[in-house]
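Review the following:
>
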Amino acid sequence: PSGVNSAVNSAVNTAEGDAIVLPRFDSVSVRVDGRLDEGVWAQVPGFSDMTVISPDTLEAPQYETTSIFFYTSEGFYVGMYARQPVDTRIARLSSRDAALNRDGMQVTIDPSGMGLYGYYFGVNLGGSLDDGTVVPERSLSREWDGPWRGATAEVEDGWTAEIFVPWSTIPMPAREGVRRMGIYVARTVGHLGETWSWPARPSTQPRFLSALQPIHLQGVEPRQEYSFFTYSSAAVDRVNER
């Protein structure tokens, strides 16, 4: 999309240890449908420095990928614009947390900002979601299912994705003023059997959670939220026929 392309032109290359100050918007409305068509996406710089990490070649990827981040008082938004020919895209619908070879986006967030714990969010072409928790340095558990939203959409020269994580979804330490967190974004390309990421953190390196890209956010405080689930149950006694 043209808005994303204009944002890429103002992207900032950031070395490990240099925190990115993310933009904050408190009066925007984003429909999480996978399409980066809201005006806010065009106002945010994009980052396109992905590297092939699986296999661990650390080479430049075959297609361009742009990752975009911003936040509001309600939560954290991640967008991805992935260039890819239509005849190479793999969209496979599955149950939540299923590990399949397909195209998708994955995001890991360290709310502590110190590599103490993290949360993993993934959305795949076709709309299937994947999530879990991460503890130092690379121990991933998919037992956790959090209340967040994600979607993908196909566009003419590739596909796009959106993820929204409410602040109440991820526990954060109390902190005033500037909050430091860590972020990692990856892209899986099914027909190549490859994974690309920014920053580059291949599994052959010992550090992961403690070496995410630092980001700075202002005025984000821990929140508590209640979720309600409706259900019904029934019992059948075949002996007494009741």
The radius of gyration is 19 Å. Confidence is low (pLDDT under 50) at residues 2-16. The first helix runs from residue 2 to 8. Helices lie at 2-8, 39-42.
